Amino acid sequence: MTGQIQLVIISIGGGHATGVMEAGTQIKQSLVKIFPHTNIRIIDLDALSDRKPKYYSHKDYDFDAVHRQLTEGGHFTKTVAIKNANDANSSDPIELVLLCGCYALFDERINNLAQLKVFLDSDGDKRLINLINLRKIATGEELSELLTEYMDHLRVEMHKFIGPTRANADLIIPCTNDNTGCAIITDGIVRVVQDIRGSGHHTHSFAKQSPLLLDFEAERMNVEKERYYDLA
């Protein structure tokens, strides 16, 4: 039989050096184990930001191109052979895309396509420390240059452009060094896929479908996980 592939978009945003791509990679690894026959890919939004000069704003990104990549690639209309669901080699009519980057929640058109929008939250001090570690600062001159960039550009960019996208998130996860946040996001994605498979039709907003966000059964969530929710 034949069917259509549905693109399921999960947008993961956050401030500088909050580990957005690292989280996306870890989540993908978990999803591959849960959905072994599902095509899962990551789009690194920050890697697409190569405009010169650098504006330290949304102007550094070509959201039109990203939107076209998500909507004009035939993902919503591509007809494929769908084998018996019990066949271990059967292809899955769902494709998961993890859109990761500081501005993943910025563009309204892309937000309307996403089934789940996540923001990784962190305070400024931690972001700065992470930047120092990521850039492997070894000299006073390098540190001085980074501090200048942070104070003159990155901090302003966070407050004016990236931080406000927090309001667009369905789920806000504190940026930490453990795996609990990624586990919660993975659980949310599994719920989205299950809902889509159960309904048999497209759903463009997980928040609309589940006003309480990740409405998990209480017995599935332990106390450690619960402290990560931010429904403010």
UniProtKB/TrEMBL annotation:
It comes from the Eukaryota. Gene3D superfamilies: P-loop containing nucleotide triphosphate hydrolases (3.40.50.300). SUPFAM superfamilies: P-loop containing nucleoside triphosphate hydrolases. Residues 75-179 form the Phosphoribulokinase/uridine kinase domain. It comes from Torulaspora delbrueckii. GO terms for molecular function: ATP binding; kinase activity. This is Phosphoribulokinase/uridine kinase domain-containing protein.
